[in-house]
Write a structure and sequence with these properties.
Helix content is 46%, strand content 17%. The protein has 458 residues and is an alpha/beta fold. Strand 13, helix 13 and strand 14 form a beta-alpha-beta unit. The protein binds guanosine-5'-diphosphate (GDP). The site of guanosine-5'-diphosphate (GDP) has 15 residues, from helix 9.
Length: 458
């Protein structure tokens, strides 16, 4: 069991509210509480575990009554952190809450760092790293579907799948070891075909998990839609029409300026995030290459590209330039805008081989066809039953892809007739990467980094 000092923090958001909760965790949690919490005829040490207790917070220096509170007592290891935990339910609001916290800190606890409670739950072995990260995801979830998927990860569904592959690897390594160490026991030996077969089976399981990432990311961050096109084709008009019809579900993300493109809009239950492709508009100026590179990477970053065209005009070189840089692996919808004007048939015919939608952004006609197209591509909505596991964390995805590469490389090694111990190196590398996901082989720096991004009091 990991042992350290006793920590405390306000676990509820700051501001005015009916109740605030101050959480204390560590071996001194009950002693600290005892000094400032007075009950009739008993102390927090006397009461049973898992009880809620009525009393008063007192400043021990002056005996002043600070607040009337309810105090929950949870004993190690049956608590969030697997340590002794106290939660003080005091009255909400800045003044009382910070006063109670100050008393807790004056009487033996230290202020917790961001994510430190969850980190202790992890270090004490109550949850693995995937579950710890799922807690953060659950708190930050913008849609019901993503909250459900985070809850599945918190329950351990994703960890279970990864542990299954880890167990397969360990089994295989044991058999490889016999093959290497005791070549005389022929009947125990793994043949090259058997090795490839085992690796392919594990690789297949990995691929299945990796393939959930796109949907997971859409649920977490929203499906990313880039609206591109040369100046004056009606991109802003279209964006406004899409945003006005659908209420924004997130307007203010910490650390970002408030900007229309930072808003996540709810289109039929699908969280949609619009990507700013301002760079495209400058594509033909002198800093051309930088502008184009930036735009291309933004297009690469999107799930759907709405390519906006002024259908009342002939196509020109600027339109052609944009057509040339459309990535092939994305869902591209050509939005033929300004259909309320006289249309240029040549322009319309030029997109015969594309998925097109005819609209008038100005008259707000056809907008629902774009919404339906986005919805159909996302294939998720907020009432979706998220039964299966979903990978939505880029850290997990990269490690899974890395493990998959190790498997591929191992197979190549076998095919090229190399020694089995070289294959073993790749398989071990894959095992280590999977262990990094769940936390066994994760470096301290990365663990610190992960928990630093948690909110205070969590
Ligand atoms: P952007 O530069 O691509 O963002 O284009 P804007 O959205 O600023 O629109 C450029 C001009 O085209 C504005 O004067 C709009 O009012 C006009 N416009 C946009 N959409 C339509 C449309 O569907 N029909 C008509 N007739 N004009 C439009």
């Amino acid at each position: 069991m990991f042992k350290e000092d006793t920590i405390a923090a306000i676990a509820t958001p700051s501001g005015y509210g009916g109740v605030s909760i101050i959480r204390i965790s560590g071996s001194e949690a009950f002693d600290v509480t005892d000094k400032i919490f007075k009950m009739k005829n008993k102390t927090i040490h006397d009461v049973n575990k898992n009880t809620i207790n009525y009393g008063h917070i007192i400043d021990p220096k002056t005996n002043e009554v600070v607040d009337e509170v309810l105090v929950s007592k949870m004993c190690a290891p049956h608590s969030f952190t697997a340590e002794d935990v106290i939660e003080i339910n005091c009255h909400g609001g800045m003044s009382v809450t910070s006063r109670v916290l100050a008393l807790v800190l004056e009487n033996g606890a230290r202020l917790a760092e961001a994510g430190e409670f969850t980190k202790r739950a992890f270090l004490n072995g109550r949850i693995d790293l995937v579950q710890a990260e799922a807690i953060s995801d659950l708190i930050m979830a913008k849609t019901n579907s993503f909250a459900k998927s985070a809850m599945n990860s918190l329950k351990g569904d994703l960890s279970e799948k990864i542990d299954e592959i880890k167990a397969d690897i360990t089994n295989m390594l044991a058999r490889l070891e016999v093959t290497i160490q005791y070549p005389e026991y022929d009947e125990e030996d793994l043949t090259d075909n058997e090795i490839v077969d085992l690796i392919e089976k594990m690789s297949f399981k990995l691929k299945k998990i990796i393939s959930t990432f796109e949907k997971g990311e859409i649920l977490k961050e929203g499906i990313k839609v880039a609206i591109i096109g040369k100046p004056n084709v009606g991109k802003s008009q279209l964006l406004n029409a899409l945003i006005n019809e659908n209420k924004a579900i997130v307007t203010d993300e910490a650390g970002t300026t408030r900007d229309i493109v930072d808003e996540v809009v709810n289109i039929k239950g699908v969280p949609v995030k619009f990507i700013d492709t301002a760079g495209i508009r400058n594509a033909d100026n002198k800093v051309e290459q930088i502008g184009i590179d930036k735009s291309i990477s933004m297009l690469e970053d999107s799930n759907i590209i709405l390519f906006c065209i002024d259908s009342s005009r002939a196509l020109d070189s600027e339109d052609i330039e944009i057509i040339k840089m459309l990535p092939e692996n994305k869902d591209i919808i050509v939005v033929l805008n300004k259909m309320d004007l006289d249309v240029n048939n040549e322009t319309i015919n030029a997109f015969e081989n594309y998925k097109t939608i005819e609209i008038s952004a100005l008259k707000q006609e056809g907008i629902e066809k774009i919404e339906k197209a986005i919805y159909d591509i996302a294939k998720v909505n907020d009432n979706d039953e998220v039964g299966e596991i979903l990978v939505s964390n880029v850290r997990h995805k990269n490690l899974l892809l890395g493990a998959k590469e190790d498997f591929d490389h191992a197979i190549e090694m076998v095919h090229s007739g190399l020694e089995v111990d070289l294959v073993e190196i790749d398989i071990n590398a894959a095992l280590s990467k999977l262990g990094e996901i769940t936390g066994e082989t994760t470096s301290e720096d990365i663990i610190d980094e992960i928990f630093k991004n948690f909110c205070l009091g969590k």
